[in-house]
């Protein structure tokens, strides 16, 4: 009887396991800081002083564009014997700032979705 | 009992598994907002206001500017048979890594910054995801 009980206890962690994980990349974008930047007047130096160094700089002829982003990915799943279910939801805060040839901010566009990332099972639609 | 244990070995060590996975990367595009863009009249500012920040921006041919918007919503299922020999993972997230899986639209703006071309589909199939070297200084 003791052997059977011990065997059963040893098998429990093998039969099922569930997990969640979260991974992020870069720092969250500060919406209030971005709102202080004005197209037509703010310069690249102003943007760097307000938001820090961009994650990517793209040269566009004599102009340039800077990308800032923060990614939030949440993964949930479980395994039963040979069955594994995994759901990954990755959302991002992202901003692109376009500068003219004088390094003055010309256009700015942002998408703030990182906080919407969620844990779910593969059959759940958490964003609908 | 011994035979039963032997039969279970490949399953317990995860050599054989059935996986059902769903991956969602970024928000799906707003088709109504895309419909509001007009070729010849809409500018970069209009696209940014309607669709938000693109995933990629790069310099196109002839002083054009290309914006690409994309997302991934996929479901995968299937059996896998594997023998883990070495595994390593990274906590980083790379925009280069996800580019091959994203579907969406590519907007090309001409030198006058007006919308010239709209293409929809898998971004990798559009053949426009090319990491261009910056133009040389004049």
Which key phrases capture this entry?
heterodimer, A: 128 residues, alpha+beta, five-stranded antiparallel β-sheet, 21% helix, 45% strand, rod-shaped, B: 138 residues, Beta-lactamase Inhibitory Protein, Chain:B, domain 1, 4 helices, 5 strands
Overview of this structure, please?
The complex is a heterodimer of chains A (128) and B (138). With 128 residues, chain A is an alpha+beta fold. Chain A has one domain (14-115). Chain A contains 3 helices and 5 strands. Chain A has helices at 2-15, 31-35, 44-51, and strands spanning 16-25, 56-60, 63-80, 83-99, 105-112. In chain A, strands 1, 2, 3, 4 and 5 form a 5-stranded antiparallel sheet that branches. Chain A is rod-shaped. Chain A starts with a helix and ends in a 16-residue tail after the last strand. By secondary structure, chain B is α+β, with helices and mostly antiparallel strands. In chain B, a hairpin with a 5-residue loop joins strand 4 (103-109) and strand 5 (115-122). Chain B contains 4 helices and 5 strands; from the N terminus they run H-E-H-H-E-E-H-E-E. The model of chain B has no long low-confidence stretch (mean pLDDT 81). Chain B is elongated. Chain B has a domain at 13-82 and 102-122: 2-Layer Sandwich (Beta-lactamase Inhibitory Protein, Chain:B, domain 1), CATH 3.30.1450. Chain B has helices at 2-12, 31-35, 44-51, 95-98; strands spanning 16-25, 56-59, 65-81, 103-109, 115-122. The chains are: A alpha+beta (128), B alpha+beta (138). The A-B interface holds A 14, 23-25, 56, 58-62, 65, 67, 69, 71, 73, 79, 81-92, 94-96, 98, 107-111, 113, 116, 122-123, 127 and B 11-12, 14, 16-27, 44-45, 47-49, 51-55, 57-59, 63, 65, 75, 91-93, 95, 134-135, 138.
